[in-house]
Amino acid sequence: MLAKTFSASVIGIDAYPVEIEVNVTGSSSGGAADSVVSIVGLPDMAVKESRDRVKSAILSSGMIPPKGFTVVNLAPADLRKEGAAFDLGIALGMLAATGAVNPEALSSVAVVGELALDGSVRPVRGALPIAARLAEQAGLAMLLVPPQNAEEAALAGGEKLAVYPVASLTAAVELINRGGALPYRTSLAEYTERNREHEPDFADVKGQKMARRALEIAAAGGHNCLLTGPPGTGKSMLSMRLAGILPPMTMAETLETSRIHSVLGLLSGGRPLLNRRPFRSPHHTISDVGLIGGGRDPKPGEISLAHNGVLFLDELPEFKRNVLEVLRQPLENGWITVSRAAGTCTFPARFILCAAMNPCPCGRGEVELGCTCKIEEKRRYQKRISGPLLDRIDLQLEVRQLSQDELLAAPDGEPSAKIRERVIRARQLQQERLGQRKLYCNAQLSSRDLQEFCRLSAGSQLLLRQAITRFKLSPRAYDRILKVARTIADLAGCVDIRDEHIFEAINYRRKEQ
Question: pTM value?
């Protein structure tokens, strides 16, 4: 007898529908052919091992596995199938082939879940992209998922797909045969209200007015930034608060970012969605694969986990040179393509790069602070960061060490909430200006967009040309100064870019060492 149901396979961060077909043939008498199961359709080892898990789960649930020769086909046959998420679907298909499950009802059901030997259902990775993809599949009435994955699946499936959590194989059989249960329902508003988190606040930061201003500009325009200064000046403290002043994520951004974390199993059962922008801070010993993604079967890296948020690289010169150089393409394009023997995957990587570094090997930077480094040692240390990478960092500034008197006299910092209000207003101006273009901030402006939206007066052009000549800046640096000036004007609510906006933007470019 032939039975079928549906599931999905995750490749990279995308899900692809898979049809599970089960056919039982042969003698029902005892013997060697009593329980032979063959799984075809390009399965990996975890999928092949499911025949033993499924058989044990069926027996533990008080049901009888099919006798004879059972063929399980995972279609399409040329798509590689990975993981244990097909267990529950295979088990239900085998039971439908024996008549224990209604095959007609099962044919309009999608199923995701790993089976334990006692018949209970364990959570799987990638439930969010799977639900989002299956919601587009015509003819599906419901999706069965482990209870731990129910909320993320329901949020991704929306109104198009009814999601039902099932804790065991027995519960899944009862649901398909008898129905009557209510689907799991939730909304993004309910989830966000239930999972509000305390974020680091700029109110905790005293002094460092210029650094705070630079980070506000970075958030408003989506610009990359580099903070240079001695240890203890607050570079890390400031950087950790950057994500908190970015505009709240839209529903599309939330699902897109959460999908990446879901594929890597980084979403817990109680937190199926990211309700705030990600902040990733990998250690400087990370490899290039760990940063951009890859592996035998390509998986997203840190830059994709920081998508729609902030990637913070502390002690920037301590990162390996080859690791930093791979950032150049995603910083320009907002995505990274990883090619391996198993296939090619493109991962989103639109993030704000916030980096911090010491001015020299000893960290003090100035003789007055006790620096003993020679000029050549300082140059070698700073040359660890290549010119092309520095060119892609819009805001580069020194964070100086405050004296004890300055710290004591400094007033309390401005709260992140007030800064975020200004950032949101600036982003709204950018959205109105960009109209139907698929851009959301000034950092993404092309050369043609700069000509249209960043026209300068004769005085501003002269000021910019003088800066280019004096600091030996590249054409890319010229464009990025214009983008920063456009953001500064947006924060000020100005339609045109003025001389003071250009002057401030020039001050954030690092001078030649």
Answer: 0.84
Q: Count of residues for the chain?
A: 513
pLDDT tens by residue, 233-247: 899 999 999 999 999
- d(C-alpha 140, C-alpha 6), whole Å: 9
Q: In this structure, what token pair is assigned to residue 290?
A: 């760990």
> Residue type at 310?
V
Report CA Rg, the chain. Answer: 28
Pairing of strands 14-25, 2-11: antiparallel
Q: Which of 271, 270, 279, 267 is nearest to 237 (CA)?
A: 279
Cα distance from N-terminal residue to C-terminal residue, the chain: 76
Q: Is 466 exposed, middle or buried (0-12, 13-18, 19+ CB in 10 A)?
A: exposed
Tell me the one-letter amino acid at 461: Q
Encoded amino acid at 367, one letter: V
467, 480 contact by CB (below 8 A): no
Query: How far is 37 from 70, CA to CA, in rounded Å?
Result: 5
| Dihedral sign (CA 413, 416, 421, 425) | positive
Tokens of 298: 């390509």
CA angle 344, 154, 125 (to 5 degrees): 40
Report in angstroms the alpha-carbon separations of 444 from 28, 203, 362, 437, 508. 66, 30, 37, 11, 18
Say if residues 186 and 128 touch (Cβ distance below 8 Å). no
Which 3 state secondary structure label does DSSP give 339?
strand
Tens digits of per-residue pLDDT, 122-164? 999 999 999 999 988 878 889 999 999 998 898 888 778 899 9
Task: Return the half-sphere exposure (C-beta side, CA atoms, 13 A cut-off) of residue 109.
Answer: 27
Closest CA to 480 of 459, 512, 450: 450
